[in-house]
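Aim 2 progress update. The chain analyzed this quarter is reproduced below.
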Amino acid sequence: MIELTEQQRRALAGTVDGPVLVDANTANPYVLLRKDIYDRLIAGLDDDALDMHQVAVLVDRAMAEDDAHDPLLADYQKYRKSP
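Predicted structure tokens:
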């Protein structure tokens, strides 16, 4: 188990959008979750827990969030064929 330093604890306490950590060597981002949140997340991954309709809703939501933060989306849509 890795224990947080006091500096890391203070940094986590000041996060608004979630504690995203970046590996200085690889630039890979990581998200730090409390164990109770992680356990709930893992419990929700039961194969029988989601049907395909629920998966489609989650994918649509994720895509909408991704589109909302895409600075180039307007340029992409400019070249979209009209029906």
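Residues 21 and 30 are 5 Å apart (CA to CA). The longest helix spans residues 52-68. These observations will guide the mutagenesis experiments scheduled for the next reporting period.
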